[in-house]
Amino acid sequence: MLDVDTGVDDACALLLAALHPGLDLRAVSCVGGNAPLVDVVRNTLTVLGLVGRRDVPVGVGAARPLLEDPVDARHVHGSDGMADLGLPVPLLEPDPRLAVELLRDTVAAAADAGTPLTLVPLAPMTNIALFARLYPAVFARIGRIVFMGGGANVSNATAAAEFNVFHDPEAAAIVLDACAVHGVAATMYGLDVFYDPLVTDEHVARLREIDSAAAQLGAALVSFHHRRFASGGATIGDAGAVAMLVCPDAVRTERLPVRVELTGSFTRGRTIVDRRDWTGDLAHDPHGLAPAQVDVALEINGPWIADVWLRTVGGEDW
């Protein structure tokens, strides 16, 4: 199950999750982030409709962070949040359940069937934090959380913080704490690896030759970022977090204590990834070891991840 704020790279991730034969996309929940919630919902339904995944329920979630006013990223993703492609209004409708209810039902159904769900938040984790607080017993039944957010050494929204965590740091902190309390495994796919899987102009040209809605949409999304950033290669961003589910050996992770900074004037929203050697004398540290032990992605085989996305979106003609 994905949680998204669709977004150009969220749309790339949706294409991969919806089409890869090794993935079973059960549901999608939407949250305000890259764009306002109304745009996120429309964009998500558009992508799923274009690739024929009308079976995937889409839940409408939080329009704003837990505490602060929302700050979108339309300067990166376009005024509509998804590359201003002028796509037709989707015929699909969102699920009548709120996002937290869809999360509850989907997680419970998977656990009941003996196949605990992998939850992939690609957005500010407001929905996931609300789910953790409203339905803690069901949250505890999640098999694994793989989230796009944070960074051990890299930031973007501020000098200290990555956008998804910066947008709602309290939510990220709540989710990490809930993972620690309930023993839910967590993987952080952050900015240290986010930018490495690249799709080039040559890849886009090849996708444009393929007569499928997925290939045409994928080409248009990546081409938008090529133009916006005057670059011949664009990251598939959030899609990398989905791709690592099918090729885990392409990403090197290290299990490390992680906290979210909530109060610093210049560092609010930073993921504090503790890479110290804990065998020494730490009596002078008043904070101690962070409760959340997270598999932090530190290195990636970018071409491998990009190839997984290209072969999935391009289909048999790639």
Summarize the structure.
With 318 residues, this protein is α/β, with parallel strands linked by helices.
Task: Explain the overall architecture.
The protein is an alpha/beta fold. It has one domain (2-317): Inosine-uridine Nucleoside N-ribohydrolase, Chain A, CATH 3.90.245. The protein has 13 helices and 11 strands. The strands form 2 sheets. Strands 3-2-1-4-5-6-11-9-10 form a 9-stranded mixed beta sheet, sandwiched between helices. Strand 1 (2-4), helix 1 and strand 2 (28-30) form a beta-alpha-beta unit. Helix 1 packs parallel to helix 12. The two termini are 26 Å apart. The model has no long low-confidence stretch (mean pLDDT 95).
Task: Describe the secondary structure blueprint for this structure.
Elements: E1 2-4, H1 8-19, E2 28-30, H2 37-50, E3 58-60, H3 74-77, H4 99-112, E4 118-121, H5 126-134, H6 136-139, E5 144-148, H7 163-167, H8 169-182, E6 185-189, H9 191-194, E7 198-200, H10 201-208, H11 213-228, E8 233-235, H12 239-246, E9 251-260, E10 271-273, E11 293-300, H13 302-314
Parallel strand pairs: 1-2, 1-4, 2-3, 4-5, 5-6, 6-11
Antiparallel strand pairs: 7-8, 9-10, 9-11
| CATH-defined fold name | Inosine-uridine Nucleoside N-ribohydrolase, Chain A
Structural class: alpha/beta
Mean pLDDT: 95
How would you describe the shape? globular
The helix content, as a percent range, equals 25-40%
The CATH architecture name reads: Alpha-Beta Complex
CATH class descriptor: Alpha Beta
Q: What does the oligomeric state look like here?
A: single chain
Residue share in β-strands: 15-25%
Number of strands: 11
Rg, Å, rounded? 19 Å
CATH superfamily: Ribonucleoside hydrolase-like
Count helical runs: 13
Distance between the termini: 26 Å
Biggest sheet, spatial arrangement of strands: 3-2-1-4-5-6-11-9-10
